[in-house]
Design goal:
36% helix; elongated; five-stranded mixed sheet; single chain; 3 helices; 7 strands; Nucleotidyltransferase, domain 5; alpha/beta; two-stranded parallel ribbon
Length: 137
Amino acid sequence: MLLKPSGLDGSVPIDMTPIIDTVFNLLIFFLVATTFQQTEREMQIALPQARASGPITAALREIVINVDASGRFIVAGRETRDEDLSALLRDAVASNPEQKVSVRGDRTTPYANVARALDICKGAGVAEPYLETVPLN
């Protein structure tokens, strides 16, 4: 005597709902994580072009200083004064001497504004601030 499973056609039913829920949760997690990481890099800053530009390494706690067309500094989505930027960088370097800092200057801003940002970085103890560019087309 053979025992048949309880399915209508003789097969064992498999509930796919938990697997689908898990896949959707992972998808949502990665979409949200990627969106938060890219917010700094998607500001309205028109970067200059350079032949040797390259991708920025995904460093933990990298500080990104955006210099807009009018010369204002924007860090973490907020406008920052020179003194506040210097204090922020000093604190970051005190806790991590190898702090990574990227300066993203709008291509239409005078170079003096970008140089001011680099000067603040050096004055705060940042060993090697990175000047971000985009590749030539």
